[in-house]
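Margin note: ligand = 2'-deoxycytidine-5'-monophosphate.
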Amino acid sequence: MKKITIAIDGFSSTGKSTLAKQLAQHLGYVYVDTGAMYRAVTLFAMQNGYISADYFDKETLINGLPFIKLHFEFNSDLGFAEVFLNDVNVEKEIRTIEVSNFVSKIAEVSEVRSKLVEQQQAMGEGKGIVMDGRDIGTVVFPQAELKIFMTASPETRARRRYDELQGKGENVSYEAVLKNVEERDYIDTHRDDSPLRKADDAIEIDNSNLSRDEQFEQVLALVNRVTKSM
Ligand code: DC
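Resulting structure:
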């Protein structure tokens, strides 16, 4: 079976990574979580004091970009690849609400985006990849054979993220999570460089009322249709 590139874009907490992991595992493809890359750069900026609640030293971050090395390592226990920042596993640190609060600001910086897009394109050269993010179908892989655009209501998404954070023992209110979801939606869709939008040839899936398995079956049928027609 010919291998293809699968681009999954959409708002935060629409379950992109869940779907992407299921597809990658089933198809024997590589899964790349590009949000983790923006989060790791955000963590770097936080660790070095380049960003805080009322401060962002964009120039120093841009000058520091050559000193940021990101890579993924597959963890067979988890079934997906974890992200490393300068050889340190930061998979856990990048998922906190603090990182979520700053990441959209970092993702607005064009120099950050072009560095990460270049690395993402290199990872996809051999096809057989499922990549999720905000600009995969529009910027990273405009030629992807299959593009999915995922949506769900902000309340549904905030509830999912809240449950996830609670499960990890993070003490945060549902209202704070909803506010973060809505703010990120706004910034992600309004930034100048590569705003989140549905590619013209992407297939939209609203999963507010779909189970994980129903969604997976729908998308797998699309993958089979594309690969058979090649
Ligand atoms: O998917 P996520 O919530 O982990 O992504 C974190 C942030 O990174 C999100 O608010 C927007 C940004 N992002 C982006 O701008 N482009 C991508 N390809 C992936 C994520």
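The radius of gyration is 17 Å.
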